[in-house]
Amino acid sequence: MAPKSLLVVSLLVLAAAVAAPAAEAQLGLSGLLGLIRIQGTLFCTANGNIGVNGTSTPVFPNALVQLQCGGTNIASARTNSSGVFSILLDPLNFVLSSLLNSCNLMVDTPLATCNANLPAVGLLSSTLQLVGNTVVGLLNITSIIPAAFKLLPLN
């Protein structure tokens, strides 16, 4: 019985070795060992972006940033004390072109939370912008950032 088992195991190993390059060719290495990272910094301004006049711009800590596709929340993250957020996605579950064309980042935490002089109603929204890919070892990371947040007033 042992030689039969050894033969079966050897055939399984051989089949896996032959199938791996085919799977890599179909999906690409990023499909097997990939990650989509959406990250950025949210600022405590009327539009959530850094100021353009060269003055120091405070960040927006502890704000909930949501990734919405077709009106549905897909993922979310909170900004840290430096206003930075990062959302990680599995590329096998998301088509990159759909993310870039059909999804937005939404922040409904009131701006007045970080600065009482800013609007207490409305939400920030941003489309997504592809930055590029980075390979770290066998991992391919697709980097996406917010294009520019805009304040959407609530009616």
Question: What's the total count of β strands?
Answer: 9
Average of the residue pLDDT scores = 81
In this structure, how is the largest beta sheet organized?
Answer: 5 strands, antiparallel
Return the structural class: alpha+beta
CATH class annotation of the largest domain: Mainly Beta
The CATH architecture category of the largest domain equals: Sandwich
In the predicted model, the low-confidence regions spanning at least 5 consecutive residues are: 6-31
In CATH terms, what is the fold-level topology of the largest domain?
Immunoglobulin-like
Order of helices and strands: HHEEEEHEEEEE
Rg, rounded, reads 22 Å
Number of helices: 3
Q: State the strand order across the main sheet.
A: 3-2-5-6-9
Shape: globular
What number of domains? 2
Write structural notes for this entry:
- Residues 1-25 form the signal peptide.
- Keywords: Signal.
- This protein is of the alpha+beta class and 155 residues long.
- It folds into two domains: 1-27; 33-152, Immunoglobulin-like (Sandwich), CATH 2.60.40.
- It is 24% helix and 36% strand.
- It contains three helices and nine strands, in the order H-H-E-E-E-E-H-E-E-E-E-E.
- A five-stranded antiparallel β-sheet has the order 3-2-5-6-9. The protein has a four-stranded mixed β-sheet with strand order 4-1-8-7.
- A hairpin with a 2-residue loop joins strand 7 and strand 8 (139-146).
- The N and C termini lie far apart (75 Å).
- The model is unreliable at 6-31 (pLDDT under 50).
